[in-house]
């Protein structure tokens, strides 16, 4: 089974860094900026002997690339909505990214997880964090999705965050399989 997952969120929230940490267990302070769409693959063993291939579309957050990324929404069954806990604008835009995808795919087809990123920034004195866990949890609950926090820099909770995303997506596929008429599907 192949699950296609799209990474969503403003530029610089750390989407590419999260994927690099998850797929290669590495972190680059000056990671190349994504132009258009990048592609990553990771195999997840859901139980002994059962492997699922996750393929990730990493989009550029800039408005001017949206026309490129739109064509990838159609094949996605999972979506990671990423914001930066030190950047309120990126949090405010989560709803826009969500709407952007929902307007273009069959309703409820993409299962989302909300991820508050750069959680390392409140390790010492909380001075850099502007979005509290409580505020983010409220938004996630209003939007009907799980909320997780992670840091690609330290690696903290990254594996767990992608596990939540994959499991939410897999559960949806088993309980709400698509109709055959939905021709753009990949699993
Ligand atoms: P993208 O545009 O959303 O793909 O973001 P990038 O992955 O290119 O990261 C943008 C910037 O955030 C880079 O300077 C990274 O070094 C930094 N960054 C990424 N992940 C983290 C993190 O977990 N913690 C902190 N403090 N910075 C991070």
Automatic annotation (TrEMBL):
GO terms for molecular function: GTP binding; GTPase activity. The gene is rab42b. The keyword Amino-acid biosynthesis does not apply. The keyword Plastid does not apply. PROSITE patterns: RAB, RAS, RHO. Transmembrane segments: none annotated. Coiled coil: none annotated. InterPro entries: P-loop_NTPase, Rab, Small_GTP-bd, Small_GTPase. This is Ras-related protein Rab-42. Pfam families: Ras (PF00071). PANTHER family: RAS-RELATED PROTEIN RAB. Keywords: GTP-binding, Nucleotide-binding.
